Amino acid sequence: MTRLATPPHHGGLLVVQPLRHKRCAACRRGPLSLLVLEDGAPRCLDCADLGHLVFLPRGDTALTRRSREESTLSAVVVRFNRRKSRYERQGVLVEEAALVRAERRCLADAEARRRRRARDARLRAAQDVRFTEAFAAEILRLFPGCPVERATAIAAHASLRGSGRVGRTAAGRALTEGAVISAVVAAVRHMDTPYDQLLMGGVPRYEARRRIAGAVEAVLRSWEAGVRVRLTG
Fold it and tell me: Which CB contacts under 8 angstroms, 24+ apart, belong to 164-172?
């Protein structure tokens, strides 16, 4: 039997959604959709005394939190992401009666929570607008020859919430010179050089970057000097 990677332990019970077919080491039932690791061996939920719990997928934060508050016994369900080489939360197991009580609590204040979410969304949108404007202004300070519309587009792309791009990093949020320049270089690379075509043609990324380095530098120098030109290539 292939051993499972050991999931992280942050306190509380953990249940695993296995990527491969597994059988319970105790009762031999399988394949298991959910299992508990005990001393490195898989156990089905019944053998782990968790068979009476119901699965609540992730997605509704309020319902998840309240279900765990209402449930005497609960467990976090995780699954291994091979691409990211880490376990990721998929939901929770809670008592069915606890889930019913939590759903009633959520229904009782659903309108108030909807209004709060709407207020929070408006606040985040306003914050994003201000940050994008500040990012664009910093681009224009460093590259006065950059067209205003390009600076705005670069700033909006780099600072998109949830994108994980440079504008959302700590350095980007602080508008450090390095982060701003990185965003500009990336935009020039994709928009003003044949970089994407080279990648599509099978050229390795580092080689493609080497080939277009001069073209990127030419655009940056022209923008630094205040010359509003666009390199085509």
Answer: 167/131, 167/135, 172/135
Alpha-carbon distance of 167 to 159, in angstroms, equals: 4
Give the pLDDT of residue 30. 81
Its pTM stands at 0.58
Instruction: Give the integer Cα–Cα distance in Å for 119 and 103.
Output: 23
Q: What is the DSSP string of the chain?
A: -PPPPPPP--SSEEEE--SS----TTT---S-SSBEEETTEEE-TTTTT-TTEEEEETT-HHHHHHHHHH-SS-EEEEEEETTTTEEEEEEEEEEHHHHHHHHHHHHHTHHHHHHHHHHHHHHHHHHHHHHHHHHHHHHHHH-TTS-HHHHHHHHHHHT-TTS--GGGSHHHHTT-HHHHHHHHHHHHHHHSSSHHHHHHTT--HHHHHHHHHHHHHHHHHHHHTT-------
**Two structure tokens written together for 171:** 């350095």
Q: Given this model, what pLDDT does residue 226 score?
A: 67
**pLDDT for the residue 17:** 93
- pLDDT for the residue numbered 113: 83
Residue ranges in the chain modelled with pLDDT below 70: 1-11, 226-233
pLDDT at 214: 95
